[in-house]
Amino acid sequence: MSKESVKIREIFTSVQGEGLYVGEKQLFIRFCYCNLSCAYCDTDFLAEKSKDYTLEELFEIISNSDTKVVSFTGGEPLCECDFLLEFLKRYKEKLNKKIYLETNGTLYQHLEKLIEYVDIVAMDIKLKSATKEENKFVENKKFLEIANKKEAFIKVVFDNNIIHEEILSCVNLAKENQNIIVLQPKMPISDDLKIEKIFNDFYKNYKNIRLIPQTHKFLNLL
């Protein structure tokens, strides 16, 4: 069944502050709802503060943007999979923009429905040591197998609680297709965070990694 409208928390243009596309101007569409409750989450995606948009209204806003990339973020945008699928089926070719999906990498069955319309997948691995959520490595593996049909990279938010088994699990997920792992220190960065040590713990097991903090917070951008 198609879905003709959806609750969206906010729509704004800014500079991408995370991952491999840091510094690129993007249009951000922030969806409400998430299937996880990460302890460090600092994003306001409450539905009570949202606005309803139809497919046509969202298309008009995106088509009038001067950005070359549209980032669907949240919350977890795949919670609105039916709306996204209907939107992309109707309008992807007309937009002439890259579709960038920011996701927690757990709803693999939802991703399967619309992967053909997505260009870039930024998949978070939500570690129990940082989020207090149970590790979802089984779901992450299935998700990444689908995401790798397109350009995909992995983001890992970490703090001093990270354990060796989590590092190895992240590395094993990335190795099969040589996905880049972006290590992201949990914000705000504590004075005692062992950033270099944790980076090196990853690096000695896997070389295809980057250390990139949330640069938009240093620049006071949205």
How would you describe the shape?
A: globular
CATH topology: TIM Barrel
CATH architecture heading: Alpha-Beta Barrel
- Low-confidence blocks of residues: none
How can the largest sheet be summarized? Answer: 9 strands, mixed
* Rounded radius of gyration (Å): 17 Å
Summed up, the domain count is 1
Textual characterization of the structure:
This protein is of the alpha/beta class and 222 residues long. The protein has one domain (5-218): Aldolase class I (TIM Barrel, Alpha-Beta Barrel). The chain is 32% helix and 25% strand. It is built from eight helices and nine strands. The chain has helices at residues 55-63, 81-95, 108-114, 128-131, 137-147, 164-175, 195-203, 215-218; strands spanning 5-15, 25-31, 51-54, 69-73, 98-103, 120-125, 151-158, 181-185, 209-211. It has a nine-stranded mixed sheet with strand order 3-1-2-4-5-6-7-8-9. Helix 3 links the parallel strand 5 and strand 6. Helix 1 crosses helix 2 (81-95), helix 2 packs parallel to helix 3 (108-114) and helix 3 (108-114) packs parallel to helix 5. The radius of gyration is 17 Å and the shape is globular. The chain starts with a strand and ends with a helix. The mean pLDDT is 91.
